[in-house]
Design brief:
- The protein has helices spanning 10-21, 33-42, 75-78, 80-88, 100-117, 127-142, 162-172, 212-215, 235-251, 254-264, 270-275, 300-317, 334-342, and strands at residues 2-5, 26-30, 48-50, 67-70, 92-95, 120-122, 148-156, 176-180, 183-187, 193-198, 201-207, 224-231, 277-286, 289-298, 324-325, 347-350.
- The chain is an alpha/beta fold.
- A 7-stranded parallel sheet has the order 3-2-1-4-5-6-15, sandwiched between helices. Strands 10-11-12-7-13-14-16 form a 7-stranded mixed sheet. Strands 8-9 form a two-stranded antiparallel ribbon.
- α4 (80-88) packs parallel to α5 (100-117) and α6 crosses α13 (334-342).
C-alpha cells in the first residue's frame, strides 16, 4: 500500500491520478476528510485517512503503508515529522521537495537509521532533481573519469502552485551549497552568474542550491557539481534580485512574503500547467573530454507525478538494493527514471 501525504494539494492530486493510471494500491492522506473524500470520488473511491503532519497523534494513519509519498510542503517547515515517522515504522519514504536544505537534513539526520531499518529514504523525486540525478548518473557512466558536472535548468512559462512558490522563496533566501573540490561550500544564491547557450539562445544563468550537489557524489567520487538556472533577464537585474534575496534572508521578511503567497496565490490551470516547457542540460568534463545530455519536455508537475509514482510503485513491489539515504536514480537505476519520463513525453538527447 502506498500512502500519499498532502493528497489534497496541487501536486498530491496529480500524484494520486498517476497512481490510479498505474493501477497501484494506495490511500489518500491529508488534514481535511471532506476534501480527501471529494478527491477519492473523482478518481476511484480509494481509501482516505486524516493526518496532520504537525500532530503526531494522527500518525496512526500510516498504519499498513509500505511506501509513503510526502507532498506536503514547504518541507523545511513541515517535512521532518513524516520522515521521522516513516523511518520509525520501516516505511519507504519519498517526497517531492525542491529544497536543498531539507534534502540535506533528511540525509544527515535520518540516513543512518534508514540504513539500519533497511528502508529507502528518497527525498527530491520531483522533475528537476530526479532528472538531474539521472542525467548526471548517465554522464558519469559514459565518462568514468569525469571530475566536474554542471546542470543547467531553463523553464519557459512556469505557472507555479502556492506550495512551489513558498518552497522557492525558502530555497532562495536560505544558505545553500555547491560542491567545489569535493567539499560542500556554502554560497548565497546567484554567487555564480554567467552566460550560457540554452535552446539556441544566449541566456544569463545563476547558481542556486540544487539537490544534485548532494546526490551525485553518492554515485561516484567527483570533484565539483554546480547547479544553475537560466533566465531571460539582464545580468544586472539578476544580481539585484540576488541581493534582495539576501536581504530577505537576514531580515526574516521571507516569512511575511510566504504568508502573502499563502493568502493570494492560486493554482495553475490545466492549460497553464501543460504549456510550461523545460530544458535541462547536464555536462560532464574531465581531462579526457566531455559528455552532455539534454532533457526537454513539458508539464513539469505531471512529470513529477510520473516520477514519484513510478518509483513508489517499484518500491511497493521490490526491495531496494540497499537501505538508507538514496537519490532517486539509486532506487532502481537512472534508466528507470529515463523510461518513466519518456513515457510522458520527455526527450533525452546525448551529445
Amino acid at each position: 500500500m502506498i500512502g500519499v501525504v498532502g493528497a489534497t494539494g496541487f501536486t498530491g492530486r496529480l500524484v494520486a491520478s498517476r497512481l490510479q493510471e498505474l493501477n497501484a494500491q494506495f490511500c489518500l492522506l491529508g488534514r481535511s476528510l471532506p476534501r480527501l473524500e471529494k478527491i477519492a470520488s473523482e478518481i476511484r473511491g480509494v481509501p482516505t485517512r486524516r493526518i496532520n503532519v504537525l500532530d503526531s497523534s494522527t500518525f496512526g494513519a500510516l498504519e499498513g503503508c509500505d511506501v509513503v509519498i510526502n507532498c506536503a510542503g514547504p518541507f523545511i517547515q513541515l517535512g521532518e515529522p513524516i520522515v521521522r515517522e516513516a523511518v520509525a515504522r520501516r516505511i519507504h519514504y519519498l517526497d517531492t521537495t525542491g529544497e536543498q536544505a531539507f534534502i540535506k537534513l533528511a540525509y544527515d539526520k535520518y540516513g543512518a537509521s534508514a540504513r539500519e531499518q533497511q528502508i529507502a529514504l528518497v527525498p527530491a523525486c520531483a522533475f528537476e532533481y530526479a532528472l538531474g540525478d539521472a542525467a548526471g548518473t548517465l554522464v558519469l557512466e559514459q565518462l568514468p573519469d569525469c571530475d566536474t558536472l554542471e546542470i543547467v535548468y531553463w523553464v519557459e512559462g512556469m505557472h507555479a502552485s502556492a506550495g512551489t512558490k513558498k518552497s522557492a522563496i525558502l530555497a532562495m533566501t536560505s544558505p545553500g551549497f555547491q560542491l567545489l573540490d569535493q567539499k560542500l561550500v556554502e554560497l548565497p544564491p546567484a554567487a555564480i552568474i554567467r552566460r550560457l547557450e540554452i535552446d539556441g539562445r544566449s541566456r544569463c544563468a545563476f547558481s542556486f542550491p540544487g539537490g544534485e550537489v548532494l546526490m551525485l557524489p553518492m554515485h561516484a567520487s567527483i570533484h565539483s557539481v554546480a547547479t544553475l538556472i537560466a533566465l531571460d533577464l539582464p545580468q544586472a537585474l539578476i544580481s539585484s534580485l540576488a541581493t534582495a534575496s539576501r536581504i530577505l534572508l537576514k531580515s526574516g521578511l521571507s516569512k511575511i512574503v510566504i504568508a502573502l503567497v499563502d493568502a493570494l496565490a492560486g493554482e495553475p490551470t490545466t492549460e497553464q500547467r501543460i504549456s510550461t516547457r523545460f530544458t535541462m542540460v547536464c555536462t560532464g568534463s574531465s581531462s579526457s573530454g566531455s559528455r552532455q545530455l539534454t532533457i526537454s519536455g513539458a508539464d513539469p508537475y505531471w512529470v513529477t507525478a510520473a516520477i514519484v509514482a513510478g518509483l513508489a510503485g517499484h518500491l511497493d513491489r521490490h526491495q531496494p538494493v540497499r537501505g538508507g539515504a538514496l537519490s532517486p536514480a539509486m532506487v532502481a537505476g537512472a534508466e528507470l527514471i529515463q523510461n518513466i519520463t519518456s513515457s510522458v513525453g520527455v526527450s533525452w538527447t546525448a551529445q
